[in-house]
Amino acid sequence: MDTLKNCPAPAKLNLFLHVTGRRADGYHLLQTAFQLIDRADTLDFTLREDDAIRRVTAVPGVPEEGDLIIRAARLLQQEVLRRTGALPPGVDIAIHKLLPMGGGLGGGSSDAATTLMALNALWKAGLSKDELMALGLPLGADIPFFIFGATAFAEGVGEALQPVAVPDAWYVVIEPGVQVPTASIFTSDHLTRNTPAVIMADFSGHYAEQGSTLRQFGKNDLQQVATRLFPPVAQAVEWLGAYGDARMTGSGACVFCAFHSEEQADAVLESFNAQALSATVPSTWKGWKAKALQEHPLGVVIPL
Ligand SMILES: C[C@](O)(CO)[C@H](O)COP(=O)(O)OP(=O)(O)OC[C@H]1O[C@@H](n2ccc(N)nc2=O)[C@H](O)[C@@H]1O
Ligand SMILES: Nc1ncnc2c1ncn2[C@@H]1O[C@H](COP(=O)(O)OP(=O)(O)OP(=O)(O)O)[C@@H](O)[C@H]1O
């Protein structure tokens, strides 16, 4: 096997996100729930004759050297060299981006996680799931979750993960046409950093009680800062809030709302599209639906 094509890198939603403290290094202590959804970037990996690692598709705004997929591939290549004394072959990586950057959907982290999982298989490197998660963490706080690959309750900076059951749902997601730099939210003076810690049973009990995700647990502490700094995020929360319990994912900019059925999600999107045509919704916004995923779709192809 020297190629792996159409490898999905799915998005995540943070069903809630509490900032409970701050570490000495400035990173924030979080409690969050990660939900995978079936909207994804896709990546192709083709081994090379030499040892170079190349991105063969352009990604506007992301230089090749700074791309998390290139950094993840080089990190694993060096780790294999350290373990075996032999440098694995280089690889050409093509990426088809669907997920917006600075959207809170974890696109960059998911691309990097898919890269680590695919190359671990192509190079027959044999790293365990835990080893890949630890390798990815310094590149992005969400990478361990994508390798973990299932709905999770997370603590620490998002790396202490436990599987959790959440009722099935369809989500409508609005991209309000702005990119939110994660650091600009975490460094804000307006961010509250003292939400009392919950336990996982508080979270899972909330959904068990109502039998659905229609009303979300807790809140997203990053939302009040993001809506203040980026008014389109506030407008998107207000627009989608007319249809249900709408909230921001991650550090924004995207906003989501859960529904029982695909039909209900379609009805909201119909209204979105009609209002986009009549310019009631800004032309820079995008709206789409996605289904909750119980497992990472690459796990079926490459079991870890
Ligand atoms: C907000 C979340 O999306 C929740 O899933 C993630 O924690 C953010 O993960 P990410 O985009 O991969 O962020 P990183 O690239 O790791 O960090 C970007 C910047 O955000 C700040 N940051 C990030 C995560 C965290 N727990 N505390 C922080 O203070 C740091 O200033 C960091 O330099
Ligand atoms: N492959 C990549 N895809 C997207 N962004 C990348 C990639 N590599 C590096 N980046 C950089 O990472 C930044 C954040 O992108 P990303 O899409 O992960 O944000 P996000 O969805 O807000 O993530 P999060 O939910 O983790 O905050 C981008 O603005 C870009 O500069």
UniProtKB/TrEMBL annotation:
Which InterPro entries has this protein been placed in? GHMP_kinase_C_dom, GHMP_kinase_C_sf, GHMP_kinase_N_dom, IspE, Ribosomal_Su5_D2-typ_SF, Ribsml_uS5_D2-typ_fold_subgr
Active site per UniProt: K12, D142
Identify the residues that bind ATP. P100, M101, G102, G103, G104, L105, G106, G107, G108, S109, S110
Molecular-function GO terms, alphabetical: 4-(cytidine 5'-diphospho)-2-C-methyl-D-erythritol kinase activity; ATP binding
- Which residues are in the GHMP kinase C-terminal domain? 205-274
Q: What Pfam families has UniProt attached to this entry?
A: GHMP_kinases_C (PF08544), GHMP_kinases_N (PF00288)
* Reactions it catalyzes: 4-CDP-2-C-methyl-D-erythritol + ATP = 4-CDP-2-C-methyl-D-erythritol 2-phosphate + ADP + H(+)
Q: Which Gene3D superfamilies match?
A: 3.30.230.10, GHMP kinase, C-terminal domain
Annotated coiled-coil positions are: none
Q: Which domain of life is it from?
A: Bacteria
Q: Which GO terms describe its biological process?
A: isopentenyl diphosphate biosynthetic process, methylerythritol 4-phosphate pathway; terpenoid biosynthetic process
Q: Ranges for the GHMP kinase N-terminal domain? A: 68-149
Enzyme Commission code? 2.7.1.148
The pathway noted for it is: Isoprenoid biosynthesis; isopentenyl diphosphate biosynthesis via DXP pathway; isopentenyl diphosphate from 1-deoxy-D-xylulose 5-phosphate: step 3/6
What keywords is this UniProt entry annotated with?
ATP-binding, Isoprene biosynthesis, Kinase, Nucleotide-binding, Transferase
What is its biological role?
A: Catalyzes the phosphorylation of the position 2 hydroxy group of 4-diphosphocytidyl-2C-methyl-D-erythritol.
The family line of this record is: Belongs to the GHMP kinase family. IspE subfamily.
Official protein name in the record:
4-diphosphocytidyl-2-C-methyl-D-erythritol kinase
